[in-house]
Design brief:
mainly beta; Cathepsin D, subunit A, domain 1; 7-stranded mixed beta sheet; 23 strands; about 35% strand; globular
Amino acid sequence: MSSDIRRAIRAGFTSAIGAVLLFSGCASSRSAPRSSTRVVTLHSYVGQLRYAEAKSPAGARLLFDTAGGLTLLAPSAARSAHCVPYSRLTALRMNGERFDVESCGPAEIAFDSLVVNPEAGVFDLMALLPAGLPRLDGLISLQTFTGFVVAIDLARNRLEVDDALDAERVRGMRTLPIRWSRGFAGAGLDVLVRVRGAHGPLWFELDSGNLDSVLISNRLIDQLDFSPEQIQSLRQGSPMQVPLQIDGLGQVTVAAKGAEIIYDGVLNADFLERVVVVLDLKHGVGWAKLNNKGS
C-alpha cells in the first residue's frame, strides 16, 4: 500500500505532492475497443488521482490506485454491497508501516456491463483526508480485476477490461516482465516491473497513487547507472531527472528521488500517464508501449 494520503494531498495544494495512499517503441494509435471489451471510465479527483463511478454499489465513487493492493469500500458502500466484515487482513505500506483492514470476503462491484467479485475490505478513506475534498466511497486497485486482462490508459482516462487476451490488443507492444506481490494474506495484488541494475534485475512497483517523484530505495541507488553527483543528490531526497532501463520499454527518463521504502523502487502517476500497459491478471504477463506523451 502507498502511504500518508493526508500528507500527500495537503502537500498537493502547496508544493510538490508526496506519496499517497495506501507500471521500446511506440506503436500505432489504439483502435476502437472490441465488442467484448468493457470500458471503465476514469474521472479526475485531486491532482493526478482518478476515480471510477460504480453502477453497484450505486453511484459509489471509487479511487483507482494501481498499488492499492485490495478493494476497499466505505461502510455505507459496503452495506449496499452486502459486505459484512468478519475477519482482518494485514499488509505493509511502502514505508514499512503496518496496515490492517476488516475483510468481508468477495463483494460484487459493477461498472456498466462489467461485474467483478474481488475480496474486499471495509475502510473509510475520507477519515484520512482533509475536510472539504469530494466524497470517495472506496478504492479499486489491480486486485479488483484479478482474473481479467486490463489495459491501463491513464492519458485517455480509461481502463479496458477483457475476459481473455486478444492478440490484437497487444499488437505493436513489447513484453513487459512483471512480478506479482500478494499482501493481505494472499488476498491482495500489486504489480512490479523489471528495471536493470548493475548486479541483477530490480523490481519497481506500479503506483498510480504515487503523486510524488519516482521513488528509489536508498540502499540500491548506486546499482543504477547514475553519476556520483546524481547518487548523492538522490540520497539527499532531492528530485532530479534520471534514466531508468525498464525492460520492455527501454530507457525512460523520470523525475526521481531516494527514499526509505520496502521495495526496490516505486513508479508514479506521471510515469503511468506516459505509457499504455496491458496486464493479464490471470497468467501474470504484461505488455507496454510509450504513448505520445511518453515518447
